[in-house]
Design brief:
Layout lengths: L1 H45 L39 E6 L7 E4 L5 E4 L3 E4 L5 H15 L6 E7 L4 E6 L5 E4 L8 E2 H7 L7 E12 L2 E7 L2 H4 L7 E2 L4 E6 L3
Parallel strand pairs: 6-12
Antiparallel strand pairs: 1-2, 1-5, 3-4, 6-7, 8-11, 9-10, 9-12
């Protein structure tokens, strides 16, 4: 009887140990599974959605396009770059190639790896396409380049003769390509008492030489004319009345 009781107790102990071991093993598996799930649950709460996106601080753009950067000037559609314009060049994914500066008197900009590149006479989109082609030719695979206008060159015109404040004036930033003649005269304080609005001369210098325009601004004020566009570099002379 004692032997049978002892054997039974031993057998019961082994079964209990086996059940206990199985229970502990299951518990550890549950804990391990929970530990693997917790980071994913936390990530799903912090960053909901189908995936995690990383922001580089750059503005995405297609190759050869122009996207204004934060702080860039608002360039009118089709704006043509000229000497002394300040631009920024951004090559996406290549921070070392980002640069900014003013176009020199020859209309060139110094660009990393490429050297001095002529950009004057191009729109922002055309400039981006040109740099994209040059980088893709020898240095980068499928480069994405963006060109933004940071500041206009100082564009000036001069008014002489019978105005209240003759001198040199800057084009408004909202109209870098030119302003109406009457607006230009208003910037100079308007006509003097002896001015002759019908006898205004505008001298304009271009590649083919100087052009002289004889303008009768009196008809503009009467609404019978379409106005006259004063361009950067023009010199306006308001004549004096002969009476």
């Amino acid at each position: 009887m004692i032997i049978r009781w002892a054997l039974g107790l031993r057998s019961g102990f082994k079964e209990g140990s086996n059940h206990l071991g199985a229970g502990m093993q299951g518990r550890w598996l549950a804990i391990a599974l929970a530990l693997t799930l917790v980071p994913q649950l936390l990530l799903a709460q912090v960053m909901p959605g189908t995936g995690v996106s990383q922001s580089t601080g750059s503005v995405a753009a297609s190759p050869g396009t122009s996207v204004p950067l934060p702080g860039a000037a608002s360039a009118p559609a089709g704006y043509i770059l000229s000497t002394n314009d300040q631009v920024a060049v951004e090559v996406f994914g290549e921070d070392d190639l980002h640069t900014s500066g003013r176009l020199n008197p020859e209309g060139n900009l110094s660009v990393p790896l490429l050297g001095s590149i002529h950009l004057a006479g191009l729109t922002l989109t055309q400039a981006a396409s040109k740099l994209t082609e040059l980088y893709g030719r020898d240095y980068l695979v499928h480069p994405r380049v963006n060109v933004s206008l940071l500041g206009y060159a100082k564009r000036r015109f001069s008014i002489l003769g019978q105005v209240s404040r003759p001198g040199s004036f800057e084009m408004p930033e909202s109209s870098p390509g030119g302003i109406d003649l009457l607006e230009a005269i208003a910037m100079a304080g308007g006509y003097t008492r002896i001015a002759a609005p019908e006898r205004i001369t505008v001298r304009r210098h271009n590649a083919s030489g100087d052009q002289i325009f004889k303008v009768n601004a009196k008809r503009f004020t009467k609404g019978s004319g379409g106005g006259f566009l004063v361009e950067p570099g023009d010199t306006i002379t308001v004549g004096e009345s002969i009476f």
